[in-house]
């Protein structure tokens, strides 16, 4: 488990731009070191703002988009192309404007896809796809993602792991179907905490006043069942990327005064 590091930016626009720059660098570094990179995308406002900032950055051309695997941390179980699906929003924010290899883009199934409305089968299918992509050196059923991003919800949820629901208690499976999510839609697919923790780096994104309480709670020792964001960490690094509004309720001993 890596201890969370915090970076606080002035506002959410700067946070999105700085995080996008950080992601470009991380992808280029991974491609240089290992030939390719793998990134897990998040849905939500902060995740989409980061993708849009990445798309608008001239430095995006430093990425070799053909040598990048893209996965999702969660998905809203809706029909293909639904505007509320995380992948639909990711396409709009970035993926339609960069030359990704479609074979290396790994969406979670829609509710009208190969598994029909069976969300458990769809989750199991994604777990199989992850397992097939894992190499012996990953020592587990999911690839060692280079960067896994998570938008933190105002209730401390990450991916589709909501406080107190069964999905956040899962210790065996890597992907689960989620029922009765308090944020619409109620049916979702999510990576579990064990799958999230397989990533080299986990980045938690929190911008805006409505995230302040969640950030303070998750970073002040709350348990992961009550505050799922508290249970999300990477093998090598756990990075909280915040704006000043989201950091405004952090205990003073946690707030990094030197952050830009
Ligand atoms: O529903 C979801 O919400 C969270 C956070 O979204 P935000 O708009 O409050 O930033 C996101 O992490 C998750 O991927 C998504 O499915």
Description:
The protein has 260 residues and is of the alpha/beta class. The protein has a single domain (4-243), classed as Rossmann fold (3-Layer(aba) Sandwich), CATH 3.40.50. 27% of the residues lie in helices and 17% in strands. The protein is built from six helices and nine strands, in the order E-H-E-H-E-E-H-H-E-E-E-H-E-H-E. The chain has helices at residues 12-34, 45-56, 86-93, 119-133, 193-196, 212-218; strands at residues 4-9, 37-41, 68-72, 74-76, 147-151, 175-178, 188-191, 201-206, 237-243. The strands form two sheets. The chain has a six-stranded parallel sheet with strand order 1-9-8-5-2-3. Strand 8, helix 6 (212-218) and strand 9 form a beta-alpha-beta unit. Helix 1 (12-34) crosses helix 2 (45-56) and helix 2 (45-56) packs parallel to helix 3 (86-93). It is globular. 48% of the residues are buried. The mean pLDDT is 96. Bound molecules: ligand LXAUTJHC. Ligand LXAUTJHC is lined by residues 42-46, 73-74, 76, 86, 150-151, 153, 158-160, 183. It is an enzyme of class 3 (hydrolase). This is 6-phosphogluconolactonase. Belongs to the glucosamine/galactosamine-6-phosphate isomerase family. 6-phosphogluconolactonase subfamily. Keywords: Hydrolase.
